[in-house]
Specification:
By secondary structure, the chain is α+β, with helices and mostly antiparallel strands. A four-stranded mixed sheet has the order 2-1-3-4, covered by helices on one side. It is globular.
Length: 97
């Protein structure tokens, strides 16, 4: 199952150009784990979660995972944790009957 990573940006934000680059990198390198959505807070129809009060903000599911741009190590950790959380549980074929 693929998780959604939402990146909230704003036009006045100096770090948001880098956030767009990071969004592209994540789409390239982690497409099997994340669908990336970039949400511009200047869009009047944008739905903004309660925990988003600065830009850029990165949200996986409903959880804010970064205020500001993350390092490559942080992104790798998110991917690893998300991949583990979204894998289906293995079912034992040996019922012990």
């Amino acid at each position: 199952m693929i998780s959604t990573l939402r990146i909230f940006i704003a036009q006045h934000c100096p770090g948001c150009a880098e956030a767009l680059d990071i969004a592209h990198q994540i789409q390239q390198n982690y497409a099997h784990i994340f669908t990336v959505e970039v949400i511009d807070l200047s869009d009047e129809q944008a739905i903004v979660p309660e925990g988003v009060f600065a830009t850029p903000t990165y949200v996986i599911g409903e959880r804010v995972v970064s205020l500001g741009n993350p390092s490559q190590e942080q992104i790798k950790a998110w991917a690893a944790a998300t991949e583990i959380d979204t894998k289906p549980a293995e079912v034992s074929q040996d019922c012990g009957c």
